[in-house]
């Protein structure tokens, strides 16, 4: 398999992933809607193109890290997938609907290409440190080809079978659990604060004992300090993900009352003009309610 990769999408996650691939020796042709974001990669040797389709090589590999379903469907037009063509592999790392992945997989099949869902659990600093994790699903032969590429910038790859939507179900479930943990910490830390206990002290005790896990330790620091900048993942994207979670649950007749609460936290935060904050700012809703 070629060491050349087309890379589409240079946001907060896409850029460090692309840098990691270049550092691992891959030759990247990159595209981003805002072209200026590609400038740091050109200094590392990446080739920049003006149109996404120009990055594609027939029979090659393309990685996409795009914002949402609409953007993925727009970029991966019939024309682009046809150019990717027979033997081509698309590694989609976006957090999108499982049904969108299934539809995209079918379109790729029509042209002899293969679609692999590979959403990543990682904030930008985790990508740089190589400690993120990926859920992957799709055709077995293509997964074996792409796993060595992905192993260069993550700690673990977890295979969820051949259903191209399966990995997206896992990603939505995981993001829901992170958001629910943010709400839980927001409520607990605020309750402690209103009873004369510092947010920092309860954070330190609980994240070294009962809740000694990365989500509580890393996000908990933000919640304890009530500081939700710099932005690694926008509040609006958090709302997008929880809406996808609720739709996926509804399609399977699964009630998720906690997800409904989280959705309302995101909507409230955006209504309060907090769209310039990280998605973890949903935890601030508990402080708002308590007048803290």
TrEMBL record:
Keywords: NAD, Oxidoreductase. Transmembrane segments: none annotated. One of its GO terms (molecular function) is NAD binding. The active site is at 171. It comes from the Bacteria. Residues 4-155 form the 6-phosphogluconate dehydrogenase NADP-binding domain. Residues 165-283 form the 3-hydroxyisobutyrate dehydrogenase-like NAD-binding domain. Pfam families: NAD_binding_11 (PF14833), NAD_binding_2 (PF03446). This is 3-hydroxyisobutyrate dehydrogenase. It comes from Dyadobacter psychrophilus.
